[in-house]
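Schema walk-through. Below, the input block comes first and the output block second. Nothing else is stored per chain. Lengths vary across the set, and this one has 274 residues.
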Amino acid sequence: MTVFALKYIAILYLSMASLPKDAKPPFKMKESPPGTVWLKDSVFIDVNPVKNIDYKEFLSFMQVAYSKELRDSFKNIPPYGISMENFRTYMRLCGIDKDLASKMKIPYEMTLSWSMNMDEYLNSPTYKNFPVVNASYNQAIMYCQWRTDMVMLFYSANSKNEKQRRKYYKKIRYRLPTPEEWAYAMVKFGNNTFTNQAVYAGEKCATIEAVPQKKNLDFVYIPYNVAELTNTDKLAVGMSWKDKDTTTNYSKTVEYFGPRDWLGFRCVCEIVEY
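--- output ---
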């Protein structure tokens, strides 16, 4: 293990040893940010890794409009009462940032370690609920920013007045989790690790489909599915399908260099203003 990874061990074990009993959020709970459950403090975490269908929605929006002008406008979006029809008109006027849209694409011709390429894996309806792989650190960060903007837009458009807006948090921010937050999740949601599912590279697909959830969402972790990005570049956590480790060290750290077909990501959502 390298010095780069070793410096996180103390943080990880501290998280495992210091999980308070009956922990409660330091604020009055409102509707959870979409796709998340409460983790600790002001942080919520995705119940599943980001799926192909999620990333495709992001790419589709990039092809319509996500210029600097549009991104900047989200900083001043009204908290409620926004007209989606007017917003769509404004969005089309902003136009496309072609350079950014190009940078967010995962090359379709990229070959996976099993019998398909990214085009088939990302675009086939069969794999829509499988974890997106081969996304870069910068692509994941931009996905988090876009997701933040979309949720804030949803809050505004779904609230006709100030009273309706109160059921949502005033300001949120999606981002990648820290290694410490991941370790905390592994302890808090330890009963939600699906160790009975196994994947092997060389079969038709080496990753596993997300566990279906509709109501009463739960954090889910599937060992030997994909390792997941953290907010530290080149440092991931968890066990992927190519991992040969047979321990239950689900908070293990792993170094990576560039996009990999064993590497995905999930977001956390931080409540900036209650």
